Predict the structure.
Amino acid sequence: MEPIRTLRSRTAVLPVSDVDTDQIIPARFLTTTTREGLGQHLFADWRYGPDGTPRPDFALNRPAAEGCAILVAGNNFGCGSSREHAPWALTDYGFRAVVSTQIADIFRSNSLKNGLVPVIVDPATHRWLLEHPGAEVSIDLETATLRHPAGEAHFPLEPFARYCLINGVDELGFLLGREAEITAYEARVGIR
Amino acid sequence: MSTIAQTLFEKVWRAHEVTPETADTPAVLYIDLHLIHEVTSPQAFTVLRQRALKVRRPQLTFATMDHSTPTRTEQVFGGAPIAIEAAARQVRELEVNCAAFGVELLDLRNDRRGIVHIIGPELGLTQPGKTVVCGDSHTSTHGALGALAFGIGTTEVGHVLATQCLLQRKPRTFAINVKGQLPAGVSAKDLILAIIGRIGVSGGTGHVIEYRGETIRALDMDGRMTVCNMSIEAGARAGMIAPDETTFAYLSGRPRAPRGEDWERALERWRALPTDPGARFDQEIDIDASTLEPMVTYGTNPGMVIPIGGAIPERPGDPVFEKSLAYMGFSPGQPIKEHPVNVVFVGSCTNGRLSDLRLAASLLRGRKVASGVQMLVVPGSQQVKREAEAEGLDRVFLEAGAEWRESGCSMCLGMNGDLVAKGHYAVSTSNRNFEGRQGVGARTLLASPLTAAACAVRGRVTDPRELM
């Protein structure tokens, strides 16, 4: 995982609440056995018409959304299935952060493991961001702060998640480093 | 021994702390049972290979195939190839991975295969007090036996394969107390839909729910699993129900349940698991089950749910709500009853167990599926299929004009060939009515097996009590 200290980008705004992981990537694309190349299927059923051509009215298809690394969505993002294909599709497309008022637990956990920063902001900040698509926003992980042209907001980021993002540390390395404790636990409960 | 009153969740959590959480680091939590399937495991095995790691505890790991597998008998047993090439590749890759890493697999033709959340309890692998994980959000199902069970992503599947552990922050607790008798025609599915309607699709985020009270105690294990299954639809990390005599009677004699002295010792441990009197929950609500009606969803998330006799709500000025109704082809204020139905699906990890099939068959016996309606009945496992056939339920479904398939996730999610056509209305006993979940442009109405069967008979949204 690439270390991330700060992110700076214009925002793409998707003003839909309760965006579930079936929308982020529909199930028919989950028959893959790799994690690469899923960006082309991101929001597939919203992004493309029945003939496969991009729908011009979909938020991410507008020229202004091109190259944006920060996605601002409506309330409660990422509910539903545990498919890690959702953050894989978002990062492959080019997003590095998702901003909402609430982010579903499994999606949040999956995002943190793929360098996609889950940013939960207060309703006032959220409203401002929804009303200003394309705003220049910066996200500072050291201080867990999102700054936009009209103000700033802190967001919850627990110390361990911040440490992993900033240093590009993957959790598997950390867990493998707990070998002695795991072996002691197994001995204590009788797992051989 | 701590003298502080603890919840069921806290007891299971504490018993599995390899190292407790601190301000700086999450807990290292030991996992007793890791269930894997073909869709969310391939990339995890790739990581093991890249880092030259083994599966730490193959004996605590168990694999099946369910999501992308076909349900048509000729593709499962008849020698016809799996129609979806990528799905066939996934199935082969799981076989290769399980053989290479020494993991027990119930493959496509195994007579114990089935949906991962049906076979865990059915085989007695899922037990009270265990930690159970799987790369699937409906792992919450297993909480019905008093296990702490939750869905994880593929990276975490890799963590558990390699270390048998996960890094976890301790969730908060949420008690849902249910009292009163469920009225006739109202089942566990209606109860959980009503609960989700009340707390919303993010009402449980960050929490483990414990379902409590006399109504829960009175449910059989199949009903308890239906309730816990949809905890994730309220955003909860997991759902749990304290083990009791119903749980023990269910587990006794199952192939992977403890036997003899081990069984006696297990019972002693399991009896100590229920929440202590006076233990505190972070949140608590009360539900009166005696006032509930059959429930049906009208929108594009499971929180958009009404009693079947009700009308679709009006929320002027809410564009997201309007978008959802436009997708469904519904108007605010419209009654949902009598709306035409194209497809009826009975099955899934929510309602694919034997008692669900019995409920659906009870309404279909001696009746026909309405002309123009496709009804698909898909048992949750090959064992459920055999048990249903032994009772003659397959005859009831077939004589009514329904299709009877091999087990799998089937029409719950559009990735195995069982699809609802664009614009069609499907009354489904599954768990998600998200846009496109059952096929591009498909419109899903979630309901109980009884309601689904009633809708199949009439070809319209029907209150099952009218046919009982």
Summary: The first strand of chain B starts at residue 17 and ends at 19.
